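Reviewers asked in the last cycle whether our approach scales beyond single polypeptides. To address this, we selected a multi-component target totalling 840 residues and predicted its structure end to end. The input consisted of the following lines:
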Amino acid sequence: MSLDLSAMNAEKHHQRMQLLADVTYKIRQSLDLHEILQTTVTEVRQLLDTDRVLMFQIHPDGAGTVVQEAVLPGWSQCIDQNIVDNCFGPGFIEAYQHGRISAIRDIEQAPITPCHADLLRRFEVKANLVIPIISQDQLWGLLIAHQCSAPRDWQPFEVDLLKQLADQAGIALAQAQLLADLDQVHQQLRFHVENSPLAVIEWDHACRIQRWSAQAERIFGWSAPEVMGRGPDHWFIHTDDLHRFREQVLNLTGHPFPNHTHQEVDKLTRNYTKTGALIDCEWYSSALFDEEGNLVSILSMAQDVSDRQQAEAALQQLNRELEKRVEQRTSALQESEQRFRSLFEAAPDFIYVLDTQGIIQHVNPVVIKRGGYRQSELIGHPLIKLFTPKSQVLCQQQFAELLALGSHRQEMEFVSKNGKILTVDCSFKVVKDPLGKTSILVVQRDISDRKALERIKDEFISVVSHELRTPLTSIHGSIKLLATGQLGDLSHDGQQMLDIADQNTDRLVRLVSDVLDLQRIESSQAKIDKQLCDVADLMTHATDAMRSMAYHHQITLKSEPLLTMVWANPDYMVQTLTNLLSNAIKFSQPGDTVELSAEVRIEEHRLSCSDPHYTEPIAKTGLPPTIKHTELWFQVIDQGQGIPADKLESVFERFQQVDASDAREKGGTGLGLAICRKIVEQHGGKIWAESVLGQGSCFYVALPLSCGLVEKTEVG
Amino acid sequence: MADRRILIIDDEQAIQAVASLSLKMEANWQVLTANSGSEGIHKAEQEQPDAILLDVMMPIMDGIGTFKQLQQNPQTRSIPVILLTAKAQAAEQEQFYDLGVAGVITKPFNSLTLASQITQLLGW
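The resulting structure, written as structure tokens, was:
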């Protein structure tokens, strides 16, 4: 009997173990958490033949939720019920954490809190068995069996069985969690692979493509099905790079390390795309080996760097060109700088660079050598201190104007270190360097010698003038007095000789007068005293002076005085007009008319770069701006024989009359028009002639009335 | 023309002769002559002429110096002086007028109209 009992017990144990193995198998068969829990509660309820089995998951805050349940029909369901821990009493969770198992035969008799008892009653529980589920050393929850129909004595094997199942459930839960985590990692990895800007290509141990990412398709053009199983060959890699690529892959596979990867950053490789285009790719490859050191796969990532390569090549080319240009520019600048430095240093003129306050910043060596000053006496000191007090006043007056106008020229007196006073011609020019800094460049030319020569010439002219004119006055006066006949009668021949002497003395007087006039005008460069003149007065004076001559030549002299003013020297202007009128009368026939007229005209011309009014070209056309001048034009018109076209210019030269005999026949000196031209030029004007042979000539004199504003608008 | 006494101061005898004859023939004026500035000043003091025709360029004492002395001398200050000059430049003539001369006649003068020119300059 005991043998039978023992055999029976063994049979039961075997059955239980078999049952446990079956249930464990079922639980472990799935890796899905929900399925594991469902299987566990269903199998346990059946195994224990109880009314309800549930999985109670405990949250970190101590409360919990019924996440799975197997319940016999007729008994209430408690799935998804949230139960807070204040019913369980202090230390409840900690006890289960430490493996506590609770088996209550009858809740009405059990030493539990009234709250706990109420809770169990609510679910019609009469007896319960509670086993903790430990997963990865943490209390995951509780496996609970309820007997609702009546109190129940839980057998030790039942407790043991349930405990083992709870352990299996814990293991299954841990595996499911790991799998879930792994799946999440896998999903993330897949996401990154598919969204990577790199093409991801996986090769098997025989170097055949096993994986071909979406980006690989985008970069190379082939779809995954088109390339699966193909190796790295001419279809994909440029011939010149193929050998190296294969060597690198072999190099990866030839160093097997168990559970290890060997990574290589490949050099740039030229790859073909499906369309046959060649692109530059950077490859990153790594090999994966299993525990035995067998090659599992090679993972390659490729990046299309064609654009970057092209950009780098272009950038390098640009850099080379830039460097070349900088080199050329630097060389040109150095050459230019050297050239200007040489000019600056070798120039015979004194050159200063001033700041806008007139303080000397730089000087050329001439200032030191000829001026006698030390550099320290010049740099940082005002330029005007180098001039005489009279010139200093002039300089100060002109300085503000210089900054406004940009340039100025002034004759000054420079005091050298040894006290010697030099007459200098100073040109001031405001300049801006490329950085926008304003300086004043002063070029000072020593004109002392020229001034001395001018003085000598003036004195010479004065002496010659006296020495020539004094005897001429006596001869001229005597002949004139003799010619009156009041001093006695002469023979016919004697009278004829006297007339010749009289006429030629007149001519000689005019010639001497004209030569001296011309010399005086030339030597009085820029010092003709001008004043505001009434043009009508000038014309009247000139015609009045010529009226007698016109009458003598039977010429009608007409004049239409113009009511305007001009800035001129009245004596010189009257001389010019009388010269022109005199010529016109001399070369006209009796009965002709000679006319003097004047008008105000507006003349326009385009500026040249050297013009002080020049600013900058007009943006629209690139042409220089134009400037308007108001001019006074005198016209002397005759009806004489006219001037050949080829002589229209030369008549203004000295002794260049149209006909060489004119001087004798007409009593001219050949200097009248040359004097006129000198006078007009010294007034900043111009003189010219127009003529029609046989019909007459017109001599024009144009004098500036005012310099108009620079026209910024495009003209013509 | 009214009777006038003119003093000609010029170191050039020929000029003296031509001018003298010219004034006599044209206007029948009485002419006094002096060969230098100092002689001219002396004659002016003594003779008190109606006007002095004074050459600018003379040795020792030129016309300007002579004129200044005539001006400083109370006995000759009121005698009008006409300068005779070979310098025809307007600016130079203005300088002479600035000194206070009564007129300027440039050489070569017209020997037929010299008296008329003087009459016009002095407002006679």
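Chain B has a mean pLDDT of 90. We regard this as preliminary and will revisit it once experimental data from Aim 1 are available.
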